[in-house]
Amino acid sequence: MEFMTRHGFVTAYDDLGPSSGPPVVLVHGHPFDRSMWRPQTEVLVRAGFRVVVPDLRGYGASGVVPGRTLLADFADDIAELLDHLGVQRAVVGGLSMGGQIAMEFHRGYGERVAGLVLADTSPVAETEEGRAVRIGMADRLLAEGMGGYADEVIGRMLAPYNVTELPDVAAHVLGMMRGTAPEGAAAALRGRAERPDYRESLAAARVPVLIVVGADDSYTPAADARVTHGLIPGSGLAVVERAGHMPNLEQPERFNAALLGFLACL
């Protein structure tokens, strides 16, 4: 499904499961699309949840918006999508950049958040070094396209051993990365270069929070996830063994068990 936003670009999304079910929004990471959540949507729908999974602007089948896309812009897009669907409040989850968008949504639209799922992500503001790296990568993607970047990072997106042990998963992840529009990816990288710090808003969260991380994630290590867990009173933590930065695809059964256990307690 898709709809035209007030800014004039198309947002593609899936709205799955019973309309009366508890709503769950899942936000993909960079440079992926909503298909990364397929192992979760199938399980959640069977469990009776209404699952909303958008393609973020610049990704998947959604419209490409060049320039700079802030995390706040993505959060506003999700709010507009929920308005379009008549969903007032939902559990919001995301992985990596998607987790930062979930944190931004919580900060800006806290009354609409019934719970947070933060997978393989960091609440810490971008550093000066990180800003330079993201801006440089944005320029590179515009100049060279996505192929070389995808080949370079596949062994960090997935744990290196899973690249060979899970060839279908590796092919899916590579396909998502190579299929992303460079203009959309570059705009998101420029926006993430301006990423604020979410630790204060998370520490004040008054909704249930689940933190999930792959045990072998080199982008957002398990040690960092434990620090975030300690920051948020009453939060849950699930460390997924035999997984890197994308445990929802590398170990879907373990990831789903943690997710369903969290949702069952809401």
From TrEMBL:
Keywords: Hydrolase. Residues 22-251 form the AB hydrolase-1 domain. It holds the Pfam family Abhydrolase_1. GO terms for molecular function: hydrolase activity. The keyword Hydrolase applies. InterPro entries: AB_hydrolase_1 (IPR000073), AB_hydrolase_fold (IPR029058), AB_hydrolase_sf (IPR050266), Epox_hydrolase-like (IPR000639). PANTHER family: MONOACYLGLYCEROL LIPASE. This is Alpha/beta hydrolase. It comes from Streptomyces fulvorobeus.
